[in-house]
Amino acid sequence: MPSIAVEFDTYDNDPTNHIADPSGNHLAIVKNGYNLGSGAHLASYNPSYSLKSGSPLSAWVEYNGSTLRVYLNTTSTKPADPILTYSLALSSIFTGTSLYAGFTGGDGNADQFIHSWTLDTNPVPLPGALLLFGTGLVGLGAVGLRRRKRS
Amino acid sequence: MSKTLIILISLVALILVTVSPAPADIINYSNFSSTNGLEINPGAGVTDGKLDLTKTSNAGSVFYNSTLTLPTNYAFATTFTFSITGSDGLIFCLHQDAIG
Predict the structure, then answer these.
(1) Chain B contacts in chain A segment 106-145 (CB below 8 A)
(2) Separation CA B53–CA B93 (nearest Å)
(3) What pLDDT, on the 0 to 100 scale, is given for residue A141?
(4) Sequence-distant (≥ 6) Cβ neighbours of residue A75 within 8 angstroms
């Protein structure tokens, strides 16, 4: 299934070899469905604090058209630096730009809570508007030039 | 081109740029006392105003119930606050499965 995901994984499925999972306390970027094979984690990170303490953690996931960045904090303040940075073309995963967004959880005998959620898109400026903006700038420049010549 | 026309085009262009799309808030839940707009799939539920992904089962999911249309370069920014009390954890996901 075409997908991109960030996992907050609190269980080590591969304590012997650490191929499927780097630890029982990690974040990772995965695509096209979770699997445990080698290379399933495109990028991963082991935070110094526990992901399963039950205390609220805040995460930011951002894509700018070429790079996926993940930030994590124990407070609601976004840190300056991402903990995961991975370059990929979402256009090579998806067909068209209509997508579903959400969360999945799995447990042994525990709770996975989402307290709050926002998602924004950052539309690129419309080519038409840019063209008009350029025309406007040229126009203003032309008026300025004429005025200067006359004076 | 007359000066008036140039000024007119400039003004129209500037107005268009001013009203061109700003980053759009598609999803905004400060809590989940209301789950309007969400698909709470089997296994998941709500507990004390929080999405409880594994409320009634060992696996569950919650998705925004309509598709998002991302810009042509797929740019997006999402933030969420979560808490986990044990294994196995949770996943934030963008997908294109026709089931939704």
Answers:
(1) 106-126, 129, 132-137, 139-140, 142-143
(2) 13
(3) 66
(4) A58
What b/e sequence results for A49-87 when a residue is b if at least 16 CB atoms lie within 10 Å of its CB, and e otherwise? eebbeeebbbbbbbbebeebbbbbeeeeeeeeebbbebe
The strand pairing partners of B38, in sequence order, are: B64
Task: Measure CA A124 to chain center.
Answer: 17
pTM of the model: 0.79
Bridge partners (DSSP) listed for residue B77 = A62, A120
Q: Find, in chain B, the residue whose alpha carbon is nearest to that of A56.
A: B83
Helix (H) or strand (E) holding B13: helix B3-19
- Sign of the CA dihedral with A7 first, then A82, B20, and A65 last: negative
What part of A 45-104 touches B (C-beta under 8 Å)?
51-66, 76, 78, 90-91, 94-104
Residues of chain A with Cβ-Cβ distance to B29 below 8 Å are: 116-118
Both tokens of residue B81? 């606050």
Provide DSSP, A119-139.
EEE-PPPPHHHHHHHHHHHHH
Residuewise pLDDT in 10s, chain B (100 residues):
577 777 777 666 666 555 555 556 689 999 999 999 999 999 999 999 999 999 999 999 999 999 999 999 999 999 999 999 999 999 999 999 866 5
The interface predicted TM-score of the complex, written ipTM, equals 0.79
Residues forming a β-bridge with B80:
A59, A117
